[in-house]
Design brief:
heterotetramer; A alpha/beta (about 260); B mainly alpha (about 210); C mainly alpha (about 300); D alpha/beta (about 280); A: about 260 residues; alpha/beta; six-stranded parallel beta sheet; C: mainly alpha; 12 helices
């Protein structure tokens, strides 16, 4: 193999990307390792999250259902997978009180995953027998047929709390407004930046972008999730430092730093 | 067997797609292309399964005469007519999927108008939400409201009549003022996505394979 | 008069008004149209998958090469080749360097090895495994192909976010506090836009840093950090306001196009007739409901 | 104790939605029937989009990804039609793909509107390669081998027989990617997976709703041009002197926007009035 030079094998231009991936991955894995060893990982309380538990609590008091829509995207969207973690937690709370839980699904491929997640939630609450698979309702793969069907459920079954957590598109506004008219307390969260204005305006609480990821970690108190959030926070500290050094150095006229980051 | 193999497969395909961005060795690249093709094929099976799920649910609703079963007839009818004419009927009997077939006629005169109209409903909903749910409950909400009104007023031709530089001012808001917030949210979201992708590939994210 | 166009317009106008009827209230006509739409969309999905993915990417190469191979009698030798391919998969797990040893290299080069096409049996098998999801007993088998999809998209999301969002967006914010030349330009010609140009860089720098601090989860929002986070949430709300304003543009455009379609010369009269028919339907049903309600009281 | 009859301002705040719908419908219909013909000035990102296409060297190949469907036809059909007019005026090979199932048929509708005005032949100057499932996976596999990912065009003709694709193996042979985007997968995924990795010049025409999220890419230079929404499409039509649906819709667009602004202000005015008067009532 001696005659083949490194440049032929690996794209040397992408060194800065490689360094970023190794550094960030190492940081996240390190923090997860520390969290698993029991190190205390502080995550600041999230207003939107407290609202999620209040909303489910209110539904329990009024004996009405909780509607949980894990976004309309497929399993290939990371937000759908993350929403499953929160769904598992909500399913656990709901199972404790025996409050009905409705989980409309907008992509067929998500159905088995959602069923397993809710079953896991009921399992964690020690009541696997209460799990009824037809609470996880596959409605349609078509975005708008799904939205119309969920609106029908909201207007007919009048859930006390609507939770919209995951990847949403144009239907975010309709679901939030229909829920607003049905008088439910609404908590939403998505990393799809273009839908956040509607959730912020029409819902009682909104987890904005990353807060959605942090809420998962905070809820689950799972070392892996907490470690990830701390890893991201530390790296964000690094980015803040780079941004501050960057603009100070650029103001002084030295452009080498920004070229180094860009790997030119 | 139940979760070790899927975890290895996730690791293999996850790493493969990451490494492919870094390796430029010609032999690797041609092998990579074949693996890409495999993934595409498997993904398309996933979507076929998705549609079979639609058929399964509406057929079940039909069998059990559950409320609204009559409507399921329409879904199955719509699906069957598209599939039968789109795949099985020969082109000369209005079959196939190109222009002139019943499949494309139903698409142009059935699917397009209905989907376009469903989305146009949003114009009505955004108006009713603007009136009933768009409340200036706090300082932050009023910042959102003021920016929204300025951008709306300046982005349409009437705005220009009032102040000829209005569009240019809105371009400044879009290109600079709102870009700052968008960029920070994008950086944060990217970190979250990279971390989550990493955990899924390394099998640390087991929630959706849970239950074993 | 082209019949398919006219009948097509009648159907399109009726379905458009049927969906618009949802604005009045959820009704059987809307439900029928919506369910018909779900069926059409699902059917369309399958036909397009069949013609543009299943046939060209899988069926044709597979059947074409299997036939060619058997005719030329190389089947046995090439099959062994695809088995070697399996070991390559395992080799990748232990470290790619051995995989590059010369003897395996021959396997990778498709020119010499027709087995690649034959190997398409593997994705076909994995794809078919997907259907085990419909059978309760074997449903766990569907996790294998599911893992391919999840693994691929997680890998690409990880790479894409780091390469396309993270690095370039950080680099784009490494800028001097005042845009070079904007200060002198402002004094040369003081006006709103030259002033805004001076603000260009400071807005980006302060905005990005304060919003990033808002999304900092290790420190409580109190004192100085709380203040900066408040500035951050302000920038965030401005971005959301701009997004809201732009969304109105999209929604209104969709409605304009639908009304434009209904008012077109070719559909104008059809719209009128269909509108009257729908109106009649709603008046009759409203009347019938009132009548029925009076009987029940 | 009978609920005190709500003051008219309180009843108005909970106005029946259908009255609001009626106001919007009338507001859109009037300008469609009686257009006002208001001016459209061209903004910088649209001018940059046009200059990028004008700057394409003759004979170069351009990849257009039509990632939209009937749900966003109102905004993206005018942009696509204007784009095809612009590309067909130039000596450029146009390869069209779509990562949305309904995409290829939308491309057909756009091509039908454009074909008459230009002397371009299918297969030699432009090709509709149709749809492939797989979003980012498709984008990445085009980097290694385009013909393997799209072995046949939308009509099933093998690509090896199409002259427009001669000599095109991967992104190296593509001068620019033009992403027409209405959601996922769209411009964001194209920028994430292709722009930086293959350092591919890229411009985007997108639905208004996605524009704010793409401005950071435009400011960072990852996107060299951006048409965000129907107003921007109207600017593009004006710049190309090919006035179409986008320009015609600007009057109705203007009235629609001012109706919504009116509702926001009215809604909040009522909200504040009710809050203060109720506060006042409780104090007495």
């Amino acid at each position: 193999m001696a005659n083949i030079s490194i440049a032929e094998i690996v794209d040397v231009q992408k060194l800065n990307l490689f360094v970023l991936l190794v550094l960030f991955s190492g940081l996240v894995l390190l923090m997860i390792r520390l969290a698993e060893k029991g190190r205390q990982m502080f995550v600041r309380p999230l207003a939107g999250l407290k609202a999620l538990e209040d909303a489910v609590g209110r539904a329990t008091e009024m004996g009405r259902a909780v509607l949980y829509v894990p976004g309309i995207d497929d399993v290939k969207n990371i937000q759908t997978i993350y929403s499953m973690v929160i769904l598992e937690h909500v399913a656990k709370i709901v199972a404790d009180y025996g409050t009905p839980l409705i989980v409309p699904i907008g992509k067929a491929f998500v159905v088995p995953m959602a069923e397993e997640t809710v079953r896991q939630g009921y399992l964690n609450a020690g009541r696997p027998q209460d799990f009824r698979s037809d609470n996880v309702r596959y409605l349609s793969d078509e975005q708008f047929a799904f939205t119309g069907a969920v609106n029908g459920i909201i207007m007919r079954e009048r859930p006390a709390a609507n939770v919209f957590l995951g990847s949403f598109y144009a239907e975010a506004l309709i679901l939030a407004e229909t829920g607003f008219m049905a008088g439910s307390i609404q908590v939403a969260g998505t990393a799809n930046i273009h839908q956040l204005p509607f959730f912020v305006v029409a819902c009682d609480y909104t987890l904005i972008g990353e807060e959605f990821y942090a809420a998962t970690a905070y809820l689950a108190q799972d070392p892996k999730l907490l470690g990830t959030i701390k890893g991201i926070d530390v790296f964000k500290g690094l980015i803040l430092a780079v941004l501050v050094i960057g603009f100070v150095v650029e103001t002084l006229g030295f452009t080498g730093f920004s070229r180094l980051i860009a790997g030119e | 067997m139940r979760s070790e193999v899927p975890m290895f497969i996730t690791l293999f395909f996850g790493l493969f797609f990451i490494i492919s961005a870094f390796i430029v060795h010609p032999a690797y690249k041609s092998a990579a292309q074949e693996l890409n093709n495999w993934t595409l094929i498997i993904i398309s099976f996933a979507y076929v399964l998705g549609v079979i799920n639609v058929a399964r649910i509406h057929a079940k609703k039909l069998e059990e005469r559950r409320p609204g079963w009559a409507y399921s007839v329409m879904t199955l009818f719509g699906m069957l007519i598209m599939i039968v004419f789109g795949i099985f009927v020969p082109a000369r009997l209005y079959g196939g999927y190109e222009t002139g077939s019943l499949f494309s006629w139903l698409f142009d005169n059935g699917q397009v108008p209905m989907q376009a109209t469903m989305f146009s409903l949003l114009a009505f909903f955004i108006a009713s939400a603007a009136f009933r749910a768009f409340r200036v409950r706090s300082v932050t909400a009023s910042l959102l409201a003021v920016t929204a009104v300025i951008v709306m007023a300046g982005r349409v031709s009437v705005g220009e009549l009032m102040w000829s530089d209005f569009p240019r001012f809105v371009e400044w808001i879009m290109g600079d003022l709102q870009t700052a917030g968008q960029r920070a949210v994008k950086i944060g979201a990217a970190l979250g996505a990279v971390a989550t992708g990493l955990k899924i590939i390394l099998g640390l994210e087991r929630s959706y394979f849970s239950g074993e | 008069m082209d019949w398919s166009m006219t009948v097509g317009n009648v159907l399109a106008v009726f379905l458009t008004l049927a969906i618009f009827s949802f604005l009045y209230r959820d009704n059987p006509i809307y439900k029928t149209a919506e369910h018909f739409f779900v069926g059409l969309a699902a059917g369309y999905f399958i036909v397009i998958q069949y013609h543009t993915v299943f046939l060209p990417n899988l069926w044709q190469p597979l059947t074409h090469d299997v036939a060619a191979l058997f005719r030329s009698g190389q089947a046995a030798q090439q099959l062994a080749g695809s088995l070697a391919l399996m070991q390559l998969g395992a080799a990748a797990q232990h470290g790619l360097w051995q995989a590059f040893s010369p003897d395996i290299k021959g396997i990778l080069d498709p020119v010499t090895f027709h087995g690649w096409r034959l190997a398409l049996i593997v994705p076909l098998a994995m794809g078919l495994l997907m259907f085990t999801q419909l059978m309760k007993k074997y449903a766990w088998l569907s996790r294998w192909p599911m893992a391919v999809v999840i693994g691929s998209f997680s890998g690409l999301a990880l790479l894409g976010n780091a390469q396309g969002d993270l690095l370039p967006q950080i680099k784009a914010n490494l800028i001097p506090f005042i845009k070079p030349g904007s200060w002198t330009a402002f004094w040369a010609d003081p006006g709103l836009f030259t002033f805004l140009d001076v603000l260009w860089n400071p807005v980006l720098i302060i905005g990005v840093i304060s919003v990033l601090i808002y999304f900092f989860f290790s420190v409580e929002h109190k004192g100085a950090i709380g203040g900066v986070a408040a500035v951050g949430i302000g920038f965030l709300m401005i971005s959301f306001g701009a997004a809201y304003g732009n969304t109105v543009m999209t929604r209104i455009s969709l409605l304009i196009e639908r009304f434009d379609f209904l008012l077109k010369p070719a559909t104008r009269y059809i719209t009128l007739v269909t509108l009257l028919l729908l109106l009649a339907y709603f008046i009759i049903t409203a009347f019938k409901d009132k009548h029925k309600a009076r009987i029940e009281r | 104790m009978a609920k005190p009859t709500a003051r008219w301002t309180e009843r108005l705040e909970h106005l029946d939605r259908r009255i609001i719908f009626l106001v919007v419908a009338v507001g859109i219909l009037v300008p469609l029937v009686a257009p006002l013909g208001l001016p459209v000035t061209v903004t910088e990102p649209v001018q940059a989009f046009r200059d990028q296409i004008d700057g394409l060297p003759p004979g170069s190949a351009v990849l257009v990804s039509a990632d939209w469907d009937p749900g966003s036809r109102a905004e993206l059909l005018p942009a696509t039609v204007a784009l095809f007019h612009h590309l067909f005026q130039r000596d450029v090979r146009v390869l069209i793909i779509s990562l949305w199932p309904a995409g290829p048929r939308m491309v057909e509708q756009a091509l039908a509107e454009v074909r008459g005005a230009h002397t371009k032949t299918y297969g030699k100057d432009y090709v509709n390669l149709g749809f492939k499932e797989g979003a980012e996976v498709v984008m990445v596999s085009l980097g290694d081998n385009l013909p393997a990912t799209f072995p046949a065009d939308y009509y099933g003709t093998p690509v090896s027989t199409l002259p427009v694709l001669r000599g095109i193996k991967s992104y190296k042979d593509i001068a620019m990617v033009i992403t027409l985007s209405a959601g996922y997968p769209g411009t964001k995924e194209w920028v994430q997976q292709v722009q930086d990795r293959y350092n591919m010049p890229m411009i985007s025409a997108c639905a208004g709703v996605s524009a704010p999220e793409y401005y950071p890419y435009y400011q960072a230079g990852q996107l060299k041009g951006l048409i965000g929404g129907l107003k921007a499409s109207a600017e593009y039509e004006t710049v190309l002197e090919r006035k179409g649906f986008a320009v015609a819709a600007m009057d109705a667009q203007a009235l629609g926007h001012y109706i919504i602004i009116g509702f926001i202000i009215l809604g909040n005015a009522l909200y504040l009035i009710n809050k203060w008067t109720n506060l006042g009532a409780r104090k007495e």
